[in-house]
Amino acid sequence: MRLFVKSAIALMVLALASGQATADDTLAKVKAAGKIAAGVKNDYRPWGFLDPSGQIVGMEVDLARDIAKRLGVEVQLVPVVAANRMEFLAQGNIDMIIATMSDTPERRKVVGMVEPQYYASATNILAPKSAHLKAWTDLTGKKVCGVQGAFYNRGVEQKYKAEIVSFAGVPDALKALQAGTCIAFVYDDTFIQSTLSSKDPQWADYEMPLTSEDPQPWAIGVRLDDVNGPFGQFLSKTSEEWHKTGYLIDLEKKWGITPSSFLVEMHNKYAGK
Amino acid sequence: MTIPEAFQHLNDAYGINLSLVYDPFDRNRFIRGLEMTLLLSLVSMALSVVIGLAGAWILGGRSRFLKGVTTGFVEAFRNTPPLIQLLFFFFAVSPFFPGPVNSSGQVTPLIGGVGWAILSLSLYAGALNVEIFRSGLEAVPSATREAAESLGYTRLQAFRQIVFPLAFRISLPALNNNMVNLIKTTTLAYAIGVPELLYASAAIWSESLNVREMMLVMLATYLLLIALYTGIMDRVERALRMPGTDV
Question: What is the ipTM score, two decimals?
Answer without folding.
Answer: 0.72
